[in-house]
């Protein structure tokens, strides 16, 4: 299967943060959600995809082309959407479009006008007077109007109200109808991903803890609750992380069926949310 983004042994060091030999392959044609707690390194990775930051060592490929050598071609084929205005704040959408359109050979004015109308964006209002959600939509309209094959988004739903967020997620699904298009976006709103993302990447302290199809995660990972008397060296080995109270434990396991076979009705199994998954994986990483 073709990959739209590839990191090969990428390292990047800041004073108090490090990405060490990171490998990542994001599949073409799918929505991939990128999650992890504050400071996990999501923005740093997105900036390296965009060549805003450069790795100390290792290679970043987008569309099979290497950054930074192919930056110009890569940028012409992708759309970068984030929740801050990246345009001159005093310009309106009409002026921005006039400035941007000639820079993209694939610019499609009819598509631009279509999205401006669908997103109910005013053409003549200065961008600085747009709400956060309107700014996100404006970036998205521009990305879609040059037929970006890959949409990269750093927390596009941050600060949006639930109705607006749902609308944006519906738009993501709609734009995926264009064959071969891919979306890679970071978020703290994990409930959106449970419904809309095909793949999930969990990051912590610059390390990928899990990268798997969303369905597989939600079907197989479980929180198991039971009595401490069930835990010995052999049974403990079936859990990724165990939290023990005085008499009982709760633990994360990655194979629901295996746990059912071993413990039967002696334990309670609960479906996991992505927030719980991040919590347990992070705790396991630190133990
Ligand atoms: N230019 C920089 N110089 C030094 N440290 C940096 C720089 N950029 C990021 N960092 C540090 O790298 C770490 C990862 O930051 P990053 O913004 O990538 O995390 P994140 O997962 O996007 O976080 P959040 O979810 O809070 O946005 C943080 O500890 C941050 O302080």
Automatic annotation (TrEMBL):
What organism is the protein native to? Lysinibacillus alkalisoli
Arranged from A to Z, the UniProt key words for this protein are: ATP-binding, Nucleotide-binding, Transport
Supply the name of the protein.
ABC transporter ATP-binding protein
Note the CDD domains from the entry: ABC_DR_subfamily_A (cd03230)
Q: Which GO terms describe its molecular function?
A: ATP binding; ATP hydrolysis activity
Question: Which residue range or ranges hold the ABC transporter domain?
Answer: 5-230
Q: Name the coiled-coil region(s).
A: none
Q: Which InterPro entries match?
A: AAA+_ATPase, ABC_transporter-like_ATP-bd, ABC_transporter-like_CS, ABC_Transporter_VariousFunc, P-loop_NTPase
